[in-house]
Design goal:
Strand order of the largest sheet of chain A: 2-1-3-4-5
Shape of chain A: globular
Radius of gyration of chain A: 16 Å
Strand content of chain A: 15-25%
Largest interface: A-B, 38 and 38 residues
Low-confidence stretches of chain A: none
Oligomer: homooctamer
Largest sheet of chain A: 5 strands, parallel
Helix content of chain A: 40-55%
Chain lengths: 145, 145, 145, 145, 145, 145, 145, 145
């Protein structure tokens, strides 16, 4: 038994490493996927296709190139963990949640308690809300019981 | 020929009225749907099912009751317009965008120019980005040409 | 705006009438569907196709003839209300819940509080749990707000 | 040729062991999956996400955490065996049957003869009804003929 | 409540008329659809697109033109009745059954008892087997109970 | 019985008028849909959303706005007629054919005989190839037989 | 590159061996699947679940047990070859064709020329008609070119 | 992490070799698929099934035999690259784009700048437009960052 887990959302803290290390300590058969985590590289993902005059089209191209990776990996995964932090808008994380919900793909949200109210629609479709990465590790550990 | 249009997202300004009035002036055959627009009623949507001790479960119940309406109406609609304002996080709006994208349902985003960068993944799947409600009316008018 | 609501499950009490009357008093635009509610007729639904020696095949034929109606009506409906009572096993009601969940069709459960534990998997996918028919009417009323 | 088989339902008797051992004796290439079989652990699956005041929300969280495993494994499986015993309500087993039926995933029911009548809708969509685990082994053996 | 019923299969006897008349006597709200019933016209359906040298391509073109109608009408229908007679091979009728089964669309078979063995796979996915048109009328009547 | 027919492809000749008039003469119950047929308006469909520096982005925006209409109308239609002329590349017409094929939506191609070789993959999935609009009318007339 | 090929239909001649041997001689990377080919065993597939009084239910049970294998293997396969012989009705083969067509799974028919007319609807959805097993081997060989 | 990439479209230049070699130099874990690239063999793909009198049917048979390969490989792939050259009509390439779009499968277009206008609908659904094979290699390299 093996689970494939996609780690979506915030890329400015080490929550992914915490989950991956926690899972490795437990020797669980989990394969993790992520978007590109280098922020500058992600913003420039489309630059190789030609320079743009406006921010809108530069962003547009980069977002689509990134989607080549994120869509493919979410589709391959059994479970998605979606992280929301306090500083950023992370509409892409909420977008991923809606994408998973529509396809019936289960996901776990990971966010601090003070985001409960604005994330209520996202949490309503989640299979679990975790407040810290250790709880995500606990859930993944339980799945192999 | 008739189009069904769902108006998703921010509920604190009159953008829906502007679109609906603009469309009525043009005599276009559009049927509009919306979520419940009364903010307090929306937050209390699940209260009739019993009081909750914690904010999380109150929000959870209300979000699910609202989903009975929003899911049904998005599924019935041909096109969704998704509005993001500057003040609020509106993760539910981004969630609706992801939901539409996964099902291949076309949507238009409506937001000011300074949200272009954080909304790039949401805009990347949109069929159009409009900066004000008049542009949405223009598009809808064009569809009946 | 109109909602189509299928009323699934227990057929030995008047919960359907209570919901339908409650909705009529509120003048809501809801069209209700139900399975055949005459218990003996339902058990005999397949008898016209020839008599059977064993209970298994009589039940089998009748269950399939009933499925012609129930499947069609659930598929046509926007929302399903699924009622569990205390006296009966009503595995067919739980079956309908699983059927709705797989297709992403939202449903509301209706059952007394002492069934919460054995129904936890069914409630986990529900958009709401109502303990009495009045609460279902409240939710439906809210949807038209 | 290999079949993946999910064993759903009752967790208080050794029917899973009987099927697995029977299949191993025949050297059939079957990979089996199950939900978590430790009843107390299953009821407590969500406890790591925070304590709850009420039974409803404790059950709710645990049912959803369990769904992360059960949904994923049913989706991966070719065939599901669904066991109903006499003592328990096992609405979750009937839910799994409805879930499989909606997705066109074939399943086998396993239950004693005196449950034939209340399970008629569940059996009507099954590819086979087995009265004891040996019959399930017989069917699986036949599939490799 | 209304059902849409597609009448597939054999076109050399009056079974369709019998069902339609039986349903009209009962005043049931059923809308019936059928393929083109004029055998020669059906074989010549593609002739207007140009003459063919070989029987294979004449048949090929006509079968595809007919599929424009049959596919559309099966897709629109809630229930399909599929008739097999003794004289003809009617592989198209069995094809329609497989098509319905794959899409989860319920169907009823209509055929004499001596075809039970060769039709076992087709009957296995049917919701009912009727031996004469009156039984089909009985089932349709029951659906409106 | 009614058919909805989408007329896709070339917008520089009067083939749509010929089909619509032919069908009207026969009093067939067909509802026709088309993309916006005014070439300049179509190329400028996105201009109301802001001027672009480059041809690529102007085209991009207009193509997406047009997709709001074309996708919706193809999805609503039972049958699509796809016209290829000799002068233009009409990759959008071939795109519509692939879109229909993937969704199992039947389509008819309409093109002169000298395009048979380059259109072989498109014709291979079509239900019919017509060389002139009269043949399309003939097929539609046949569907109502 | 590897193809999975399901060999459906007639089980009284050695056409499967001819195809498999032909493919082995060419060293093509093809994995073949088939239904159970022992006719008596296939008819008795459900006997282990209890004896039946009537032929209908014996056939019914066996057909469903066989479906556990055939459905799973068709779903796993990339291409299905469907064989029709002159002596038998083989409605199950036509059923498999309809099943494949509905799911967009490509299939090849294999039958003598004098079955062209009654099989026209089945051939109309096929990607190829082969008159003998060597032609099927030719096609499979071509796919690896 | 591995990506499967299908290379669709023009078969008269060495763009596939350029991409494959570029990817190999970077040691990326990409598995490439293509249609049959031998033009004459592709046109003759159906000849083994019997000679045809007319070009239409010869083309028809060959296109369908080729579809056995192309459909299967596109379905297996994560990403499709679709190449349009200046000399040919390549409606099959645009057909593949529409096919991918309908199924939500991401694709990249590869074509010179002077094809931007006629390809606008195809580019509108693409995740990226590359003007030369090196840019495709750049994107694939980025996906493994």
């Amino acid at each position: 038994m093996k689970f494939k887990v996609y780690l979506s959302g915030e890329i400015h803290s080490d929550w992914r490493e915490q989950i991956i290390e926690g899972v490795q300590k437990e020797n669980l058969n989990v394969e993790f996927f992520s978007p590109v985590l280098d922020h500058d590289a992600s913003d420039a993902a489309g630059d190789g296709l030609g320079q743009e005059e406006t921010g809108f089209w530069r962003d547009h191209k980069s977002a689509k190139v990134n989607a080549l990776r994120t869509r493919t990996l979410i589709d391959k995964s059994d479970i998605t963990v979606i992280r929301f932090g306090e500083k950023y808008k992370q509409w892409n994380a909420a977008f991923d949640a809606g994408y998973c919900a529509a396809l019936g793909k289960p996901y776990i949200t990971l966010h601090p308690a003070d985001l409960v109210h604005p994330l209520k629609e996202v949490d309503a479709e989640a299979k679990a809300w975790a407040a810290d990465p250790k709880q995500v590790v606990e859930i993944l550990k339980y799945l192999f019981k």
